[in-house]
Amino acid sequence: MLEILGRVVVILIVxxxxxxxxxxxxxxxxxxxxxxxxxxxVLFIVSLFYEILCRLLSFxxxxxxxxxxxxxxxxxxxxxADFAVTDPRERILLLPQCIxxxxxxxxxxxxxxxxxxECGRCAxxxxxxxxxxxxxxxxxSPGGTFTERILMRSKPKAVVxxxxxxxxxxxxxxxxxMGVPAQGVPLSVSGCVNTTVDCEEIIxxxxx
Length: 208
Ligand code: SF4
Description:
The chain has helices spanning about 1-35, 40-60, 65-85, 125-135, 145-155, 165-175, 200-205, and strands at about 90-95, 105-110, 115, 135-140, 160-165, 180-185. The protein has a 4-stranded parallel beta sheet with strand order 4-1-5-6, with helices on both faces. A two-stranded antiparallel sheet has the order 2-3. The protein folds into 2 domains: about 1-65, no CATH class; about 85-205, Rossmann fold. It is α/β, with parallel strands linked by helices.
């Protein structure tokens, strides 16, 4: 009996690994061809096996953010229609604090994050001016829990989030659970400090 059980477990593991490797290959194809296949199915499997998929990628010495990149593109595509019908003035723009200059004079407010003074030392100043012009509320958040609080307080109709791919993956998932259609824009250069963004791309996304 134990032997049969052991065989069943081995077969299940082999099938699972084969499924996950096939999924990773599909992700490669999607990135290469810029096309999206079976987004709901792929996102469902990714959410179930996220950790294992990242470990598999590391095992094959492939950039583990591949799974985040593909997931973000798929979520953006799936959310696009619901996002596009919202009034741009009822959307918010969420930025991570890592874009701030190390000499940033902005003060942190416990309710809505950093208050940019538009000193010109980083891209947030430009984004602050552009989003004000477009009538879009912008927030610079010091972290994930803070971001959730901003979302709950401001109750936006839609959101544009900017971050590194792994944080975007998580953020878009949370926004989906909160029922807020979101679009993610990755940082141009990621890291913990002095990260950079494409301001034009962000504002274009905000005004869709
Ligand atoms: S532009 Fe704003 S966020 Fe950037 S360094 Fe100046 S005050 Fe800080």
